[in-house]
Write a structure and sequence with these properties.
alpha/beta; 194 residues; eight-stranded mixed beta sheet; binds uridine-5'-diphosphate; 8 strands; Rossmann fold; globular; 45% helix; N-acetylmannosaminyltransferase; glycosyltransferase; transferase
Amino acid sequence: VDRLELEGVGVCDLTRDELFGRLRDALDGRAQVCLGFCNANMLLKALCTPAYAAALRSFVLVSDGLGIDLCSLLFRGRFFRQNLNGTDLIPAFLAAETRTRTLFLLGAKPGIAEAAARNLALLYPQHRIVGVRHGYFGPGETGAVLAEINAAAPDILLVALGNPAQETFIAENAHRLDARLLMGVGALLDYAAG
Ligand code: UDP
């Protein structure tokens, strides 16, 4: 897969079908995948913050938005084949998945993940939300959050803490989590909560 590579941050030029295939492979037991939707703002943060860039190295990053598409034109001489933003893509992926997947929703303000879970359960009756937790916790609570997630044993962990916090959380803790697919999803839970 061709990619945009800047300062060690690589954004894959995947089509939506190719990405769905990768996610399915992760869920069906191959290597754990950490997925990030990289917009220009996130790329800029990574270029300015080496620790964030390092965290993103363990991610499959896909291109989200016009800004990063313009970067691609500038540095690679062509646009990305498709724009893959999380807000469209995650609902589409969940809809396309016929096999039952279990999800844990981490992030957003208290009450939001619960409301999102209720709506997602109606929209995707084939899947199961096995846990939710709001995203306002201190570093001292991380161990308990990880334990709560592993106890629920989700296939998919959606992390909505904003960036860089969500990707940093995933990068630091993926090896301690059993979920097969971990995604930084920005404001998705707020949207899903309605
Ligand atoms: N959020 C959170 N914990 C925090 C900060 C933010 O759970 O400490 C949530 C926030 O409630 C929202 C999501 O992260 O649901 C995305 O936040 P925001 O829009 O501020 O971040 P962005 O994606 O724009 O960087």
